[in-house]
Amino acid sequence: MAALFGCEEAAAWRSVYEKYWDVVEATVKAKKPKLLQLDKWYQEELPALISSRPDKHVTLSELVKLMEWKLTRGKFRPRLQQLAASNGEDSVRKCSRKAFGLLPDVQAAVTELSALRGVGPATASAVLAAGAPELTAFMSDEAVESVPGLTPVQYTAKHYALYLHKMAAQSAKLNKVDPQQDWTPHRLEMCLWAMATATKQQLPLLEDLKLKGSGTEQQTSDPDSDQRPAKKLRAS
């Protein structure tokens, strides 16, 4: 199957987007019972909470729950959740408020959030995507690995900048050919995660999808099986 990221047809992307929650539910049935509840919170409730505040920010409890969502949706690293919970309430509010205030300078915002314990570029991107989906995208392993030229994944600000640049460019391309013009980097991440997850779990939900405009083949290998040297845990 052709890789989704190289597809130039908005209709194909929308077909994947419309199957997002089906993929989440299938994942819940497979091995992650809490994912549906957490994903609904992250995709719907948290953005509404952030947007309702005069000065956008997140609270400590929201950061901890966001970390739980991130680790449930992707690779589970329990130590990161403990580190996130060790931050002070005032620190989280102040730091996230400043980060949202730095937008549209996404890199500066990521750097600001990365000052919090347990927060690296990936978690910082999740915070920002919840409050500014038109500017940012969550740095999920599944999405990054679906973008040509970005493997292996590196949890650095530089790697995130490369990823976001390509995601923003692709969403701009889709908005030029799609009358609805509602594509954002965040929405593209949802599509790439759904496609990669459906492929990995061999779900039949997207098997009939035909993609045009891509010159590369979809990578279906399990990213967790890559042979990589052991390294010290770092915030992501």
Outline type: globular
Q: Helicity level, as a percent range?
A: 55-70%
Alpha-carbon distance between the two ends? 30 Å
The main β sheet shows up as: none
Topology overview:
Blueprint: H1 10-18, H2 20-30, H3 35-51, H4 60-73, H5 78-85, H6 89-102, H7 106-113, H8 121-131, H9 141-144, H10 157-177, H11 185-200
Helix pairs in contact: 1-11, 2-11, 3-4, 4-5, 6-7, 7-8, 10-11
Structural commentary:
The protein has helices spanning 10-18, 20-30, 35-51, 60-73, 78-85, 89-102, 106-113, 121-131, 141-144, 157-177, 185-200. It is mainly alpha-helical and 236 residues long. The protein is globular, with a radius of gyration of 17 Å. The two termini are 30 Å apart. Residues 214-233 have low confidence and may be disordered.
